[in-house]
């Protein structure tokens, strides 16, 4: 997914490796989201445990990244190794940025707003952070997480939109906020605690399930779905660190889902009246 883009062909000559492969990679267009992984971290084989199963020609790709590749390698093989080296560096990068030194480097990029700002007006131009929706390569492209509205967005640039999300991982932005809690943006207004369970919540759950089933049936026969069914089918992003949902965010999301269910109920009543 991080294969060399066509637009980068003008910078893809062997002379571009004159300094180092990592410097060339970071200076290539479309790779602005990445930070430099320290060489000591790459050379420590413990940090690369398991990556040999993810990357073809692992040893040679690692030699290319660390500028130890033999000059006798043919140009055809070097081109294939470059693709594997990008994959290997991306997977190393995902591990590096959740270390103390990696978080500090990404913090600098966050302060420079290298990842852009949230498009929502009420978020007041909150800087974004890259996040993956999967830790497995070739599954999902990178997204941008807003700490204020707690939602994810696609990058504006197609170059950035083609970056594999596994190169940043699913835990990075949330771990950054845990290590640097002063970066957590304040939410607008007060957040009410999640409502206590009520007897009619089971009825609401059954009603929502029925709405989903009805909407699927309507879509099968080609009829437009209702607004309530569209709202229920919208997926919500759930921040996680190493697969575990954050406690405070989990509590907030339960409250948000309760509010959404009430709004869906109002939409259903309005649609029944119309």
How would you explain this protein's 3D organization?
The protein is mainly alpha-helical and 274 residues long. Among the domains are: 21-103, protein kinase ck2 holoenzyme, chain C, domain 1 (Orthogonal Bundle); 113-183, N-terminal domain of TfIIb; 244-273. Helices cover 44% and strands 5% of the residues. The chain has helices spanning 21-27, 39-43, 58-65, 75-96, 100-111, 158-161, 172-179, 201-220, 227-233, 247-273, and strands at residues 128-131, 143-146, 152-153, 240-241, 244-245. The strands form two sheets. A three-stranded antiparallel sheet has the order 1-2-3, with no helix packed on it. A two-stranded antiparallel sheet has the order 4-5. A hairpin with a 5-residue loop joins strand 2 (143-146) and strand 3 (152-153). Helix 3 packs across helix 4 (75-96) and helix 9 runs antiparallel to helix 10. It is elongated and about 75 Å long. Mean pLDDT is 78; it is low at 1-15 and 189-199.
Please identify, by name, the CATH architecture of one domain.
Answer: Orthogonal Bundle
CATH homology group of one domain:
protein kinase ck2 holoenzyme, chain C, domain 1
Strand content: 5-15%
Unreliable stretches (pLDDT < 50, length at least 5) are: 1-15, 189-199
Distance between the termini: 48 Å
User: What percent of the residues sit in helical stretches (DSSP H or I)?
Assistant: 40-55%
Note the main sheet. Answer: 3 strands, antiparallel
If you average the pLDDT, what whole number results?
Answer: 78
CATH fold descriptor of one domain? protein kinase ck2 holoenzyme, chain C, domain 1
Principal-axes shape call: elongated
How many H/I helices? 10
Structural class: mainly alpha
| CATH class annotation of one domain | Mainly Alpha
Spatial sequence of strands, sheet with the most strands: 1-2-3
> How many E strands?
5
Radius of gyration: 23 Å
H and E string: HHHHHEEEHHHHEEH
Family: Belongs to the casein kinase 2 subunit beta family.
Subunit structure: Tetramer of two alpha and two beta subunits.
Protein name: Casein kinase II subunit beta
Pfam families: CK_II_beta (PF01214)
């Amino acid at each position: 997914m991080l294969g060399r883009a066509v637009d980068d062909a003008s910078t893809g000559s062997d002379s571009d490796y004159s300094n180092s492969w990592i410097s060339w990679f970071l200076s290539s267009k479309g790779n602005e989201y990445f930070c430099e992984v320290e060489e000591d971290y790459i050379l420590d084989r413990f940090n690369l445990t398991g990556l040999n199963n993810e990357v073809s020609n692992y040893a040679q790709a690692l030699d290319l990244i660390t500028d130890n590749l033999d000059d006798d390698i043919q140009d055809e093989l070097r081109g294939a190794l470059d693709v594997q080296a990008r994959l290997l560096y991306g997977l190393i990068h995902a591990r590096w940025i959740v270390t103390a030194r990696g978080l500090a480097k990404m913090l600098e990029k966050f302060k420079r707003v290298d990842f852009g700002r949230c498009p929502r007006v009420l978020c007041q131009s909150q800087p974004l952070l890259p996040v993956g929706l999967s830790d497995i390569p070739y599954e999902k492209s990178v997204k941008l997480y807003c700490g204020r509205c707690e939602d994810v967005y696609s990058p504006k640039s197609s170059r950035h939109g083609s970056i594999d999300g596994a190169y940043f991982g699913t835990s990075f932005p949330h771990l950054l906020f845990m290590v640097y809690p002063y970066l957590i943006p304040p939410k607008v207004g007060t957040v009410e605690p999640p409502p206590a369970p009520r007897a009619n919540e089971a009825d609401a759950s059954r009603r929502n399930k029925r709405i989903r089933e009805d909407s699927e049936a309507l879509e099968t026969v080609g009829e437009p779905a209702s607004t309530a069914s569209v709202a229920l089918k919208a997926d919500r992003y759930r921040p996680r660190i190493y697969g575990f949902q954050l406690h405070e965010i989990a509590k907030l999301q339960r409250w948000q889902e309760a509010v959404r269910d009430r709004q869906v109920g109002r939409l259903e009543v309005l649609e029944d009246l119309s």
